[in-house]
Amino acid sequence: MAVKRVGITDTTLRDGHQSLWATRMKTEDMVPVLEMMDQVGFASVEMWGGATFDTCLRYLNEDPWERLRLIRKYMPNTKLQMLLRGQNLVGYRHYADDVVVEFLKRTIDNGMDIVRIFDGLNDIRNMELAMRTVREAGGHVQGTVVYSISPVHNMDTYVSFVKELLDVGIDSLCIKDMAGILAPYTAYELVKRLKEFVDVPIHLHTHYTSGMASMTLLKAIEAGADVVDCALSPLALGTSQPAVEPMVAVLEGTPYDTGLDLELVSAISEKLTAIKAKYPQAQNPSIYQVNTNVLRYQMPGGMISNFISQLGDQIHRLPEVLEEVPRVREDLGYPPLVTPFSQMVGTQAFMNVIAGERYKMVSNEVKNYLMGLYGRAPGQVNEELRRRIIGDAEVITVRPADVLEPELEAARKEVSLYMEKEEDVLSYALFGQVALKYLKERESRKYNVDFELAEQAKQGGYPV
Ligand code: CO
Fold this sequence. Notes:
Blueprint: E1 7-10, H1 12-20, H2 27-40, E2 44-49, H3 52-60, H4 64-74, E3 80-84, H5 97-109, E4 114-117, H6 128-136, E5 140-146, H7 155-168, E6 172-176, H8 184-195, E7 202-205, H9 213-222, E8 227-230, H10 244-251, H11 262-276, H12 293-297, H13 301-311, H14 318-331, H15 341-354, H16 364-370, H17 383-390, H18 408-415, H19 422-447, H20 451-460
Parallel strand pairs: 1-2, 1-8, 2-3, 3-4, 4-5, 5-6, 6-7, 7-8
């Protein structure tokens, strides 16, 4: 029996705690397991990107670049992997090309191996520069196709987008199902279809949210998927990934054996269980459960719980909001419900219901989207609505980042006082005030000077 080693990418240190603990896991709690994780033989370890960069600066008072360096130091034998939102990098808007290039060069320099690059609209123009830069910097380009369910997403559209990715050049391909809606037999069909012409390894990323994910991974493996994403069991299930341990056990002795040592993996999970006890947000048992609403409404679990908290005493209107979501999505040409479009569509649906009239209030994000600033919609946008909302304003058809001026030099000037290393400029270019606050605090600790007070003194005396 021919054995094809199936690889496992471990997501514990990124998507695992992003999905379950609001991305709050501290670097100090990762360090105790890094050397053990390095022994396992994971295909890669996803530990950076997504929301981790933002939360380090905003909530944890940590430098995300130092986290990357530290993990690199403790994991010399394992490929490190990050998630990149195309031209949005690890933020929520398009950045100018100079920021994209510098960010990715520094990322690879600091030890990143694999960059998983996606765009929520599967618009290759928002990914190309990032892909080429990672390639030129010596990194591994993982091209990503975002999976979604809509009348304009089907096998043929995925196949043609994957061909675009192959044309630009990829070292591996990822099918990304951020909502946990990819059903097992669909996954089988999709992977089989892609395997006919994709000559690089195919990875599958899904979420356990709806309860289907481990079945989906198994069917994808049977269809030829090379690597699947799992998280160590203390940070698996619920809105996170399927667990590593059962996947290792299920495949052991089959033609898809992962070759991983279940004893070693379990020992790491025991350590993580102890660490988990330190996090209050990890103690809510409902986050590890299955949410069948995801199957009924094909929406990410987080979106529905957002509606519930926004509605407050208007909770009886939840069914109307849930019915409005697909209508808004249709008006916008079916963007997949992934960041930032899940927030955009959700907020608009909510406003349409609460205002009592559709599009009486329109968010800036929807206006920008209709102006083409996010890229090409997967389907047809409702033209009558577009004209009503943006009037005679011109819709851009060029690559969205082409309308952006360079940003790096201005950022360098603004941050120069608190800068210790080039990477600080990037943190500031990406997160502005949030990064500046972190850099000032770091400076305060270093010199034991309160720079806010010093600033006030400069303006005209100490406050009383
Ligand atoms: Co994910």
